[in-house]
Design a protein that fits this description.
By secondary structure, the protein is mainly α. The chain is built from eight helices and no strands. The protein has helices at about 1-50, 55-65, 70-95, 120-140, 150-170, 175-185, 190-225, 240-250. The termini are far apart.
């Protein structure tokens, strides 16, 4: 729980901090890269301790795929949401003490007037589901027993980078309910009333990712299994010869 709490806080500080303090200079590409690189670093830092979920959608994927029990999953969720709130609070504190920073920037997600492209609620919901589906599917795949390797955190970081390239123009980049809730609490107003979209949609995307992962894994295992040999037939007994039978009786 401590690792997930600290890891989620670092993820929010790294990603949201880049958006709030340098968003104009680095743009969508830079913000997405900040999230991806931060996730990569967090993965190698706390991965051996907790698996570095730092995302309730990832934890839900682990739970539904049978890799985690409900009790620890709930503990992870508590730690992740609290870590996201702490990370957002740290960004707000630093922002308030830095001149030249727009004090209205909180890094919150949103649609309509809060979206760079003025996306509708349906558009925001769909893109968040899609991005979470892709991200969680990749995470489950690279951390499975078949595919697990030392490069799993690198793959997750790259996939996070891609997910934020997709979502930042539409929703300011959600994909992670813990990342979304923290900034929304401090932003308040419309950002807080809209945050349910960025909590529910990634979780639904995670459910779809689990289904896709199960289907793909089943097909992969079926293709990898060698053809089963035909069952051996019982040895056929030859009838005893009459002469040998007479000798036995004798």
């Amino acid at each position: 729980m401590g690792a997930e709490f600290a890891g989620t806080a670092v993820l929010v500080v790294g990603g949201i901090g880049a958006a709030v303090f340098a968003g104009k200079q680095i743009g969508t590409l830079g913000i997405a890269l900040a999230f991806g690189v931060t996730l990569l670093a967090v993965g190698y830092a706390i991965g051996p301790i907790s698996g570095a979920h730092v995302n309730p959608a990832v934890t839900l994927g682990y739970l539904l795929s049978g890799r985690m029990r409900p009790g620890p999953a709930i503990q992870y969720w508590v730690a992740q949401f609290l870590g996201g709130i702490l990370g957002a609070a740290l960004v707000v504190v630093v922002r308030s003490r830095v001149s030249g920073i727009n004090q209205k920037l909180f890094g919150a997600n949103g649609y309509g007037s809060l979206s760079q492209t003025h996306a509708s609620i349906a558009g925001a919901f769909f893109v968040e589901i899609l991005a979470a589906l892709i991200f969680v599917f990749v995470v489950l795949s690279v951390t499975s027993r078949v595919a697990e390797s030392s490069f799993s955190y690198l793959t997750s970081g790259l996939m996070m980078f891609v997910a934020y390239l997709i979502t930042i123009p539409v929703t300011n980049g959600g994909v992670n309910p813990a990342r979304s809730l923290g900034p929304a609490i401090f932003a308040g107003g419309a950002a807080f009333t809209q945050v349910w979209v960025f909590v529910v949609a990634p979780l639904l995307g995670s459910v779809l990712a689990v289904i896709a992962h199960v289907v793909v894994s089943t097909e992969r295992h079926s293709a990898a299994e060698p053809d089963q040999p035909a069952p051996a037939r019982p040895a056929r007994r030859e009838p005893a010869r009459a002469g040998s039978a007479k000798r036995k009786r004798a």
